[in-house]
Each structure stands twice: as C-alpha cells, then as structure tokens.
Amino acid sequence: MDKIYSALTQIVGEDYVSNRPEELFTYSKDLGTSPPQFPEYVAAPRTAEEVSRIVRMANQEKVAVVPLGGGMTLAGLALPLRGGIVLDLKRMDRIIELNEKARYVVIEAGASHGKLTAHLHKHAPHLMHSEPGAPPAATIGGNLAIHGQGDLAHPYGFNSDMLNGLEVVLPTGEICRFGSCAIGCAWYTLHPLPDLGLFLGWNGSTGIITKVSLRLFPCKKFREMDIFVVEDETLIPDVLFALTHVGMAEDLVAWSSAIPPFANELHHISINITGDSKEEMEFKRRQIFDIKLSKYIRDGVGAIGAVAQPSERPQISKSADWKKGGGFEYVGSIMPVAAYPECYRRGAEISTRHDIPYTVLGRVIGAAHGMMFSWSYAFNRADDRSVQHARDALHETDDLVMELGGTIWKPAVFGQQLLMSRMDPNTLQMMKKVKTMLDPNGIMNPGNWEVA
Amino acid sequence: MALAQYKYKDDIHRCFRCGYCKFPGDWSDVTNCPAYARFRMESYSTGGRLWLIRAWVNGELQWSEHLGRIVYACAACNNCVEKCPLSFSDDIVQMVVAAKNEMVELGLLPTPVKTYLQNVQLHGNPYGLAAKRRGEWMADLAVAPYDDQEFLLFVGSEGAYDSRAQQAARALALTLQAAGLSFGVLGKEETDDGNEVELLGEDGLAEMVAQQNIQTFQKKGVRKIVTFSPHAYNAFKAIYPKYGGRFEVWHYTQLLAQLMRKGAIKPAGAEAAKITFHDPCFLGRWHNEYKAPRQVLQAIPGVQLVEMARNKKSALCCGGGAGNAVIDLLGGSPDSPARIRAREAAATGAAVLAVACPNCLTMLEDAVKVEGLEDRLAVRDIAELIRP
Ligand SMILES: Cc1cc2nc3c(=O)[nH]c(=O)nc-3n(C[C@H](O)[C@H](O)[C@H](O)COP(=O)(O)OP(=O)(O)OC[C@H]3O[C@@H](n4cnc5c(N)ncnc54)[C@H](O)[C@@H]3O)c2cc1C
Ligand code: SF4
Ligand code: SF4
C-alpha cells in the first residue's frame, strides 16, 4: 500500500483519510474563481498530536501539507498548489475553556465561528467575540491565519489583535505554545513575549494553529442596525470620522451596490448600536443622529435609510446567488478611510467593464485607523466566460489596490506576488529567512507567501 | 460521459458550498447533516455532495462505488432544505434523488442499495423476507382484517418484519383497540410503502408498489389511513397522490393526540419520569408536525418531557432515512449519527428516549447498546409508552 496513505491511516484512522478521486476532486476546488489544484491525500485529524505526527511524516517524505478550515477565503488560499496532503482541521472543534471573569475562551482552531457564537449565546450571553461576516462554517484558525476582521473591528481592531495565546504545530512538527499558556499559566495574556506575528496572516505557511485563546467582549442586551444614506461618496470619510469620534457604534460598514436598484449609486452606512437598556440605546442614537449626522440631514445631503433593523449574528449572505450563478469572489484590501470615494468609483468602473453589477463595502477598523474595503464580483459557475470575467476583474482590482496605495488583504497568489514585487527588499529577505528557518523543507502550504 | 437528461442540470451549480446547511437552527455545530457528521469530509457534506453530483453529471468524474456511497449516504433528513438560505433550497434533496435516478437508469448502484431494491421487487420488503410472512407481527393479536372500518392501520415493512419494530406495532394495535377505534389491517395484502424506494431513485419500482397498495386500498374502500411509520405517512401524503391515490392520512401520534383529547385513551403512569423525544424527520422537518407526539407524551401522568439541545426543526437525524436503516452506509463508528444522538439523549438525564418511527426505534436502540447506555436509557416507541 502507498506509504503515505498508510502512515496517515495509522495516525488518524482509515475513516478520516482519503486518496480517492471523489475527495481529491472536492478538495481541489474552493468557492471562488481559482482553477482546481488537486491534493494527493486528504486527512482529518482530531488532535494537535495527530497534526504533529502528520507534519513530521510529511517532512520525511518531503510532501506538502495544506491546512484547511472552512475553506471560505474564496481566494484559493487552502488549495494545494503543489499537491500533497490537505489537512481538514474541522474535527478539531472543541471549546476547551470559557473564562467569563477574565473574558477569554480557549478553543480548538478548527471550531466554527457559528459554534462559538452559539456557545457564548447559551453559556455566557453577556460576552461575544468578533464574528466575521463570513458564513458561520468559517473556522477560528482559518480566520486568524488571514488576519480576518469581524463585527467588533471598530472598537477592537483585527481579530488577530484579539489573542491571548496560541498553540501551533511548527512546520517541523513541534507543538509550541505562545502567551501566558507557554509558562503553564492560564491563557489570559499574550504579553510580554513572544510575538505571534510569525503565524498570523501567513496562510498557514509557517505553522498550523491548533488552539487559540480569544478575547471576549461585553455583549449588550439590545442590538439594532441603523442605516444612514448619502448620495455623494466624497462625504463618506467625513461621516465615518464623525461617527468614530463619537465612538457609539459597535460596527460601522459603508457600502454601495448596483443591485438592489434602490441602493445603486447611493452610499449606505450600516451602524450597529448596542446597549444594556433602552436609555443607553436612546443615548447612543442621539449622539449619533442628533449630534453627528443631523447636519447632513439639514444640509439635504444625507438621510436616515432605516432605523432599528434587526442585526443578525451570524450574518446570512446570499451574494453568491446573483442571477442564480452560484458564485462570487472579492478582493479585500486594507485602505485608509479617506480612500473610500476613489475605491468606489474605480471599482464601479471595473465592474462595468466586466458587465458585473458593482458591490463595494468598507468596514471601519479601529477609530478609522483603516478600513477593510472589498470589491465583489459575482459569476455564474456554469459559464466559463463569466468566471473568466470575474477573474480578470479581480486581477484588475488587485492592481487598483496597489495603485491607490492600499494593501491587499488575504491576497490570492496573484496578489501576493504583486505585494512582494513592491516589498522592501530587506523585508522580503527577512520573510524568506523566517520561512526557511521554520520550514526547511518548504512543505507548509507551499506557493503561499513564497519569496522567490 | 455527460448526463444530458439530469433533471437539475441548469440549477445544481448554484450551490456555493457555503455550509449554512451543516448547522442546526442555533448554529451550535457543523454536524447537523448526518452524513457529514459521520465522515467529516467535505465530500459528505450537502455542498460537497452537490458538487460531486455536478461533476459526475458533467462527465468530470466517473461513477465509482465510493461516489455511489457518498450520494446514497444522504439520509434525506431535510436539514439542508431547512437551513440553506438560497432560493433553490427546496430542491436540494430532490437534486440528490435525481442523481440516484440516473444511477438507477445506468445500473450503477452501491451493492447494498441494489440488494434493497431487489428485495422490495421480489418480496415487497427491504429485508428479503417472504411476503407471506408479512402478517406474522400480529399473530398473537386479535386484530381485524380491514373490512370497511373507519381506519386502515398501515404497519409498513418495518412494523411487519423487524422484530423490535413488531413489538411497537403490536403496542400500537392494542392501544387503538383499547381506545375503541374502528380499524383493520391488511396483513399479507400490504406491501412496502415505497417511500424509501422513491428516495433511492427507483421511480419505476416506487410507482409499482404504490400502485399495488393504491389498488388494494381502493378495492377495499379505504378512505382513512393511520400509519405506524412517518415514512409511510410521507409516501401516502406526498407520493401516492401522483398516482391517483388520495386518502385521509394520519400519523398514529396525531390520532393518539386526538383520541386523548376526546378522553378515549387514558394512559397509565409513566415508565419513567424523565423522557426525551427524538423527532423523526418525516414527521418533523418533512411535515412540520412537532406538536402531536409531544402532546401524547405530556399527557402521560408523571412524565417530565426534557428536550435534547437539537430538537424539532434542528433535530439531528438518526441516519436511518432514504433506506439507510437497512443499507447502513452511516453505521460503524462512534460518529454514526444514531450514536451521537444516543449520547445527546443520555446527556439530558432522561431515562427514556421516546421515538415515533420504527426506523428511529431500531437505529437508536442499537446505538444505545453499542454506547453501553442501556442501563440508564431505554428506547421506546410512543405507542409502547401508552399501551394499556
Ligand atoms: C460571504 C463571505 C463573507 C466574508 N466576510 C468576511 C468578513 O467579514 N471578515 C473576514 O475576516 N473574512 C470574511 N470572509 C473571508 C473568509 O471566509 C473568512 O476570513 C474565514 O474566516 C476564513 O476562515 P476559514 O476557516 O474559512 O479559512 P480557510 O479558507 O480554510 O483558510 C484560510 C487560510 O488559512 C490557512 N489555515 C486554515 N486553518 C489554519 C490553521 N488552523 N492554522 C494555520 N493556517 C490555517 C489555510 O491554508 C488558508 O491559507 C468572507 C467570506 C465569504 C464567503
Ligand atoms: S446547499 Fe445551500 S447552504 Fe449548503 S453549501 Fe449549498 S448553497 Fe450553501
Ligand atoms: S438531506 Fe440531510 S443527509 Fe441529506 S444532504 Fe441534506 S442534511 Fe445531509
């Protein structure tokens, strides 16, 4: 029998390994426009020890290992560019500790965001984590591996800024802990050492995250979404600066889309407000609308689009079903908030060129320290031409991000190469040294963040 | 070779593989598709299955026994139909059934499926037992043959042949007798209800058994049917009208709830104080009937009904639907859905796990035994809990 297959079955059990065409096909694709990349094996480990044994074996056999969570990035980041073993981590989904007083949860990296949201809702309804707008099957580890952001990005930043500790299987198989857990304490702080930047945002190419201590934040009793609308996109940065100054919102997202037609060429700011009492809600509404937004209304350039809409967690996205096509992909970027008007205008032009209705969105990160700005392109999965249009639009958008002085968030390989081609040479060399030191055989998700 | 006639070829690409369909209503876990819960490979998830079917239909992938098993591992529990937010969601199970139709047409079937269908064809039941033994379940009972009574009690293949389900079918017959209900049975004249046959993709055979039952019902003047199994309930309500068979159909829990309201049934004390209930998919998600079985249980003096975390619309299927109680593609592991469900039932602290379906009864009782839980958790059909 195939040596690698047999080693994998010994580690995780026969039910959770496959080298059959059906699984190889399934794991060769993700939801976006990337062409298929076939693995040779798929394995679904249950513990960090199993991951570690697989990684050690992969080093001996010089075969690639690609960690996979929910597979939701759309950008092909967990497709096996050099074949090898796809490790589906979703069986590693235990919630290990919920510490309400120190406000953290220790959770296995393959657990879904949906599971964590539901667990907190049931066992600690006064606490929440920053949930990305991704489908709830997205995993905690996968989201950290790409520097995701969620619905607490405005007050607290990137999800990867919300860590108290990590357990990681290094590319050479050692299981390492970082943060207070590394000295045997509870998982309550990351500080003072070491820096986890080695593992966050690297698409799993520097190690496999197996456990995470995630900070939790107060979850208020009432929540609603209000919408403020302006016609002139150049007003958006001002409005966002005003709203972030007052600091009353939990989540701020500016968006515009050609469909539905009522939203076309209008700019909406979804403002999530939460409070523990009706008075708190009313106070926040007054601070936002009466104090900060009323002048736009008075000047006739802004209007209230909706008030007190339910704000669902997790969010349900139907973006893929435009024209019953079954697909969409977006370029995400990290941009200065001031770039919103240009991002919108140029993005709408790209969409028009490719005959795809435009959809753009900017989620505020921190006190308007930046925004995650995205351009989405829907396509029809059954129509190769439509897929190609979306792919071309995505590449043009990657170029646009560079031109506008932004940085691409969760870039596909094309975008990674664009970024690295502009990167400071010393930084690039340091990245290479880090990679080579951690992963001497180059087995971890090769092709991602690969310095030539 | 592409399959030009596949019914959903213009729609199946719409699945985004976003995985909402893996969850129960409260998003508490990705394991509410029983096939995915068992194997935890994307190929066994709803989205994975739809993408594989599409690849097979387009000729990108050849048929194999493994592909067949992935497709047939769908237990038709309807969780995905419930949770998928996209507008094609009502068709998901039918997309899978339509792929099975193609497999049947091409004679490409996993071995246990072929055996199942051949047994129904030859013997009128999936177990391969002689048709003439169909009436044995009631040998020691004085149940009248159907002869113009108000109701026909349709026991179905499970109640007629499976030794554990037979006990529950007998309890039901005794209860209905004690309630003074006017009913009769068909005995040897009954044949398989065809629900699973249709879900296994063998339309021709499903039509044949349906026509056979319809002719028998019509010849005997049957107007009202009470079914022991929710699967038969679905067949008579949703499939038989296509073939001209229109009857007033009740699941037995609905009838019991009504008889209790009228005071015709007064259950004795409970076997155990704490009881939990497992919703059968073909009563719950397929027909939105969550109340009747609970009303019956709550009418038993001394019963405290405790719910499992996943209940009603979010119940985890036992893994027995679409023939899986017999073809058993989801068994053999601690992650088999029936075993997960047995553990969930035990976690409620209930002493009895009540069911209202003979497939659930056998699946869950076996699971409770394998899990070593039989000392603290008894699996009982509702009919057994109220039998006189
Ligand atoms: C409709 C939609 C909306 C979205 N909205 C948001 C949003 O609001 N915010 C946001 O942040 N994202 C969003 N996303 C993008 C993406 O889905 C999420 O970031 C998601 O959390 C990624 O997690 P995953 O488990 O799916 O990762 P995967 O796609 O499985 O993996 C991501 C990368 O990390 C690697 N990886 C996976 N698990 C591990 C691990 N345990 N250790 C190391 N490396 C690992 C993979 O190899 C891959 O390179 C959205 C996606 C969709 C489809
Ligand atoms: S069936 Fe619906 S919910 Fe499930 S993966 Fe497909 S599109 Fe998503
Ligand atoms: S019907 Fe049930 S078993 Fe079949 S794919 Fe949907 S959720 Fe899974």
Automatic annotation (TrEMBL), chain A:
User: If you read the UniProt record, what top EC class would you report for this enzyme, in one word?
Assistant: oxidoreductase
Q: Which PANTHER family match?
A: D-LACTATE DEHYDROGENASE, D-LACTATE DEHYDROGENASE, MITOCHONDRIAL-RELATED
Species of provenance: Desulfatitalea alkaliphila
List the GO molecular function terms. D-lactate dehydrogenase (cytochrome) activity; D-lactate dehydrogenase (NAD+) activity; FAD binding
User: Which residue ranges does the record assign to the FAD-binding PCMH-type domain?
Assistant: 34-219
Q: Mind telling me what this protein is named?
A: D-lactate dehydrogenase (cytochrome)
Keywords, A to Z, come to: FAD, Flavoprotein, Oxidoreductase, Transit peptide
Cofactors that this protein relies on: FAD
**Sequence similarity:** Belongs to the FAD-binding oxidoreductase/transferase type 4 family.
Q: What is its EC number?
A: 1.1.2.4
* Entry superkingdom: Bacteria
Automatic annotation (TrEMBL), chain B:
Which UniProt keywords are listed?
A: 4Fe-4S, Iron, Iron-sulfur, Metal-binding, Oxidoreductase
Q: Does the keyword Nucleus apply?
A: no
Q: Which GO terms describe its cellular component?
A: plasma membrane
Q: Which Pfam families would you find in this protein's record?
A: CCG, Fer4_8
InterPro entries reported in the protein's UniProt record: 4Fe4S_Fe-S-bd, Cys_rich_dom, HdrC_iron-sulfur_subunit, Helical_ferredxn
The Cysteine-rich domain, residue ranges = 162-234, 275-364
Question: Per the database record, which ranges form the 4Fe-4S ferredoxin-type domain?
Answer: 12-86
One Gene Ontology molecular-function label: metal ion binding
Tell me the protein's name: (Fe-S)-binding protein
